[in-house]
Amino acid sequence: FLVGDTRRIIREAAQKSCFICRKMGATITCCQTGCDRAFHLPCAPHGQCVTQYFGAYRSFCWEHRPQQALRPCPSHDNTCSICLDTVEDNISYKTMGCPACQDARFHRHCIQKLALYAGTDFRCPRCLNQEPFMTEMLTMGIRLSKRPPSWQSDPEVGPSDQRQGRCDATTCLCPGGREHTEAHGPWQLWLCSSCAAEGIHRLCSSLGNNTCSWECSTC
């Protein structure tokens, strides 16, 4: 973005109210034509919104988000394939499934954690399908890591070498781009206080100046 474009986006965001928390400064808008819903990135999971972390980084509100088309799961097998806890009987925002085997069911937060942990080896935890499983998860708003699986990491590589180094906001406002970071100020990069797998510029977070931590939509 040019400086003028950044200022315009900031001004427009300051006038938009988040339809979830009702506070001003919502920088993300539903990409469905005719929909005027806007929201903050941290509010997205509470409003069951979906952001696609590839291509144009499109975002959708709860009404227009993509839906999975899977056959009903047998009532005797309503457990998450990852954590083994109970899942909902029907596919929903919180309960997802594998498009390949049609049998695996898992919580959204469970499959998101697996995606970040498995990296390039991400696949269905039950049938081990990678395509079209990976494409479906991307479409449903699961963020994938381009790193090798965590279990293949070099044990000699320290945590500081694996730190997230880019802004993952749907709309990054930094004139220097997503990779630009500064030690202080609006372009300071905050890592998720829970998983540290996602980062965001302080100004792109839509949080107030008094906030000193940030948690990603997955956590």
Q: Low-confidence segments, ≥5 residues, pLDDT <50?
A: 154-163
What is the CA-atom radius of gyration, in angstroms?
Answer: 18 Å
Q: Write down the overall mean pLDDT.
A: 83
Adjacency order of strands in the biggest sheet: 1-2
Q: Sheet with the most strands?
A: 2 strands, antiparallel
Structural class: little secondary structure
Count of alpha/pi helices: 3
Residue share in helices? 10-25%
Written as H for each helix and E for each strand, in order along the chain, the element string is: HEEEEEEHHEE
Overall 3D shape: globular
Number of strands: 8
Strand content: 5-15%
Measured distance between first and last alpha carbons: 29 Å
Domain RING-type: 80-127
Protein name: PHF7 protein
GO molecular function, one term: zinc ion binding
Domain PHD-type: 1-65
